Amino acid sequence: MLSHYHADINPDDDNNSHVVMLRMIGFNKRVLEAGCASGHVSEMLSAQGCSVVGIEIDAAVVEPATQWLERVIIGNFDDQKLWKELKGELFDAILFGDVLEHLKDPLTTLRESAKHLRPSGMVVISVPNIAHADVKLALIQGTFPYGETGLLDRTHIYFFTKEGLLDLVKEAGLITTEICRVTVPVFGTEIGVQPKDVNNEVLAAILQDRESETYQFVIKAVRDDGTRSLEGLSSQLVELTDQLHDETRRYEALRATYESQVVKLQTLEALHDADQLDLAHLRHQNDLVKRFIPRPLLNFFRKRVNKP
Q: Could you state, in order of their start, the residue ranges of all structural domains in the chain?
C-alpha cells in the first residue's frame, strides 16, 4: 500500500521540495530519512548512490520502500526509545522532509538527530509555510480549512514561518547554511480561496510580504561549531537569500507587467488593422457611389457640403 503522501518526483522541476532536498544531499552519502513513507524519496536517494536508513511511524505503508532501504525502523520521534535503535550510528545527512510539523517536540528531535551526524554531516529540512497568502486570506474570511495534505494538513501540530524555522534550527545547535523556497502563486494552493472573495487593497497588502507565495521552506544546516565566523556567515547567507528572493519577485512582477502590455499592444494593433480594412472598404464604397451619381447631381451635393 502506498502512503497518501507518496508523490512522483520530476527531477527537472526545480520548484519542488523533494528535488531541492535531493540536490542538497548529493551523491554517495549515508542518509537517515525521517518519514520515509512508501519510498518515493528513498528511491531517488538510492539512485544517487546513497545508503538509506528509513524511519516511519506507519508500518502499513513502508513495505514498498524496503527495496531501497538499508533497513527501516518503525517508530515515533516523540517516543525517545527510537534513538536507542540508532545508538552509535553516524550519518552524512539526516532528512526531515515535511516531518517536523507533525511532531509534538521537534526541537528535541533535532537535537537528538544532531548527535548522529558525522563531523561534516548535514540536516536537510522542509516544512510548509503557514504565512502563505492563501492561509491569511482564508483566516480573513473566518476559515481554517484543514485537509488531508498540504499547508493545513489536519495532522500538523506545529506551524512554521521562516523565522520560526530558523530559530528552531538554532536552538537545536545547528547553523543554517542554505535556504530555498518552493513557491505557489496566491489562489493556487489547495486551500481554495478565490479572487472574487478578496478586497484588492487587502490582497495588495498581503502580497507585500516576501513570503506571501512561499509554499515550503527547504534548508540545509550543519552543527554549530561555536565560532562567530560560522554564525556570521549563516546570517549573511540568509540575508542574501532574502535579497535574491526580493529581486526575483520584483523581476517576475515586471515581467508580468511587460507581458500584459505586450498583449494590450497586440490588441491595439489588431484593432488598428481592422480599422484600416474598414476604412479601405468605405473608400471603395464611396468610389462606387461616385461612378453611378450623375455629374450635375454630384456637383450639387459638393456645393451643399462646401457651403458656408
A: 17-224, 229-308
Long-range CB contacts for residues 185-188, cutoff 8 Å, separation at least 24 = 185/213, 186/133, 186/134, 186/137, 186/212, 186/213, 187/134, 188/134
Q: Which three cell numbers stand for residue 139?
A: 483566516
pTM of the model: 0.78
Q: 144, 138 in Cβ contact below 8 A?
A: yes
Q: What is the DSSP letter of 78?
A: T
Q: For each successive 10 residues of the chain (308 residues), what is the average pLDDT?
A: 84 95 97 96 97 95 95 90 91 98 96 94 98 97 95 96 96 94 97 94 94 97 75 72 78 76 80 81 73 65 60
Helix (H) or strand (E) holding 37: none
DSSP state of 147: B
Question: Hey, what CATH topology would domain 17-224 get?
Answer: Rossmann fold (3.40.50)
pLDDT tens digits, residue range 29-86? 999 999 999 999 999 999 999 999 999 999 999 999 999 999 999 999 888 788 889 9
Q: What is the CB neighbour count within 10 angstroms for residue 88?
A: 5
- The tens digit of pLDDT for each residue in 93-122 reads 999 999 999 999 999 999 999 999 999 999
103 half-sphere exposure, CB direction, 13 A CA radius:
24
Q: How far is CA 37 from CA 1, 5, 40, 82, 200, in A?
A: 10, 7, 8, 17, 41
The C-alpha atoms of residue 70 and residue 225 are separated, in whole angstroms, by 30
Pairwise CA distance, residues 35 & 12, whole Å: 23
